Amino acid sequence: xxxxxxxxxxxxxxxxxxxxxxxxxxxxxxxxxxxxxxxxxxxxxxxxxxxxxxxxxxxxxxxxxxxxxxxxxxxxxxxxxxxxxxxxxxxxxxxxxxxxxxxxxxxxxxxxxxxxxxxxxxxxxxxxxxxxxxxxxxxxxxxxxxxxxxxxxxxxxxxxxxxxxxxxxxxxxxxxxxxxxxxxxxxxxxxxxxxxxxxxxxxxxxxxxxxxxxxxxxxxxxxxxxxxxxxxx
Length: 233
Prior knowledge:
By secondary structure, this protein is α+β, with helices and mostly antiparallel strands. It has four helices and 15 strands. Strands 1, 2, 4, 7, 8 and 14 form a six-stranded mixed beta sheet that branches.
């Protein structure tokens, strides 16, 4: 009898002290940029494989945009209103500011995870970005703006809900802007997708004097014409 009592207590203690198995999670990101000129779109395609039964998960993509690019907050609000994209920016965005006096922007994109098949999920998002005007340089040409690899976070209300010190508010939050604990996720990405490159046209500073002279001449002619019209009236 004593043997069975000791065995039961040992088994019970082991079950109580043992922690539940951790969820394995593998994530892959494909990230592309298209269009030409100053207005672009970044396409995100994220796939996940997990050993856990998860449901109603959300992804948060944190993108660090360099000073040569920006997002239009009015455009983001319109996309949110039509439920096409939920994203927010830290701080204020001056869309008229040139690259030389602008700073980096942190953009957070919220995306739902859709079931692809058992224990495989996929999430997609499209972020519109715009390039800023660059200071002119001798000979003109182009400057390359690099958008580096973003950070990825996940929130699941079920088993995979470990908190690792990262808690974001809107848009990486639930209904009514309720803070949710998003855990950082390591993911795989190809070299071409990890750094997106945008070639931005640059003005030719060699033509500065000519442009200034033409601008002054046109301004004088226009002022004289408008003055003449006003005096005739």
